[in-house]
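Friendly challenge for the regulars: who can give me the structure tokens for this chain first? No prize, just bragging rights.
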Amino acid sequence: MSELKKVYLAGPIANCEDSECCGWREDLKRRLKPYFILFDPLDRDYRGCDLSSWESVRTLVSTDISLIEDSDIIFANFTRMGFGTPMEIKHAYDMEKRPTIITVVPKELSLSPWVVYHSNVVFREIEEAITHLVENYAPEDILEQIHYGY
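First reply, four minutes later:
Bragging rights claimed.
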């Protein structure tokens, strides 16, 4: 059996409602679990936490950085514009062992040339990005098992 690739789910969290930051992540985790190991920074949901100390901020960001550095793929979904997701993309882009960066920018948001430059591929629809991810990075043997019902 092939080794599963690790995917970091980047996307806005700060100042977001659950519908903006949780729904798409839960959907992806449900749909992609057979094909990938998924890292979700929202598993440590910091919304409502006290981030007034340097130590709490450092711990939060350094944990995310470690997950990014351990990932083969960054799946960045811009449900809205924010600060963290572009920083995560830039960090991944600058790594010596650069992961593949797949970015989704919905049609209602304008494309930033900076995001396009630092991504391997950009989609305007999340379904297209999911299809690309599975067709290009899911292990063949697992795809066959699921397709043929083994």
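Residues 110 and 147 are 37 Å apart (CA to CA). The radius of gyration is 16 Å. Your move, everyone else.
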